[in-house]
Amino acid sequence: MIGSVFLETLRQTWKQMVYWGIGLAAMALLVILMLPLFDMQQMKDLLASFPAVILAMIGVGNELEIFATNEGFVAVGFFGKSLLIFAVYPVVMGMRITANEEDDGTMDMLLSLPVQRARVVIEKFLAYSVSIIGVVLLIYFGMHLGVLLGDVELDVARLAEVTFYLIPLMVFTMAVTLLIGVVARRRQVALGIITAYIIMSYMLQTIGLAAEGTVAEPIGAISFFTYYNTGDILTQGYIWPHIAGLVLISAALLLLSLHRYEKRDIAV
Length: 268
Known about the structure:
Order of helices and strands: HHHHHHHHHHHHHH
Mean pLDDT: 84
Shape: globular
Helix content: over 70%
Oligomer: single chain
Largest sheet: none
């Protein structure tokens, strides 16, 4: 039955989606409830006293005016500080598409049924993409709840852009994980490679932010985290070329994964 793999994957995943979503939503809610405790002008002055490398590590470039607002505080305090956490969920989901099941020996059993490899990979990828959307929706709900409970003056519509911008970023991370899992075959090897890739990307983004205005600034463009710049999103809204780039590269990575997966034996 067409869609059976998709539905079964959602059935197996929805609890993890809810747990992750509630956990991240609680973090967002806590950051918003903390807003009245801070004077934004003092925060701006404090940030201005930090060296560029420290600002880069916390996700702040030169746009101190932006981050001296309530929206900017949430963008830095939650979204900027949690980038590595946001990368974990799509890595876990990407590993489940092929690598985990090959390591467990269940993929060989699944493919012994009258079901195509491409269909399995695509439907699982789509199901996990839906779960990513669910996690992001729960985060947005948590922010709304924080505004209501804390009676905080906050432009949630602006933060919606920062929130939903996570979707293409997380899907891209899952697509990279899928390709690495398909090529590496084994779970531990794939996990080691994707972990190194994400940490390196985070470091390159930090270098790029710290080196703004210098010849070293383009180094940051190598990192996919660079295309989730909360300051730029707050001022410009959705940056569609970046979103389109992430979506197109994710689709290309999915196609590469399918091509490679069709050409090799399944680990047992």
